[in-house]
From TrEMBL:
Similarity remark: Belongs to the aminoglycoside phosphotransferase family.
Subcellular location: Cytoplasm
A Gene Ontology term for the protein's cellular component: cytoplasm
Keywords: Cytoplasm, Kinase, Transferase
Protein name as it appears in the record: Uncharacterized protein
MF terms in GO: amino acid kinase activity
Species, as recorded: Caerostris darwini
Amino acid sequence: MLAYTLLDCKTMDPLEGAGHALAGYLSLRSLCDLELSLLKMCIECRLCQSLILCAHSYRTDPSNEYLMSSAKAGWTRLEQICSTSNEDLLSKWKEIQQSYNNKK
């Protein structure tokens, strides 16, 4: 879910958009610190998997231009999340989650 939130978010910084989606999830379910610390790597892995599948699909059907536009966004988001430290990302997401807790 968070990987696709990164890909589809167009109204704000995609990393912040993923933080809002995560805050919604955490309002219903909890994650331990270890699980939270692994989210960034899981998102990176999911984006890589999508990009590999996209490259394979494009290789079998080069006329499918949609695949290349989708891949372009994927590479951009992968670079963005890879260039952000896990600590900075978790801190940003924690601030977003706390902003919802403060509204209660």
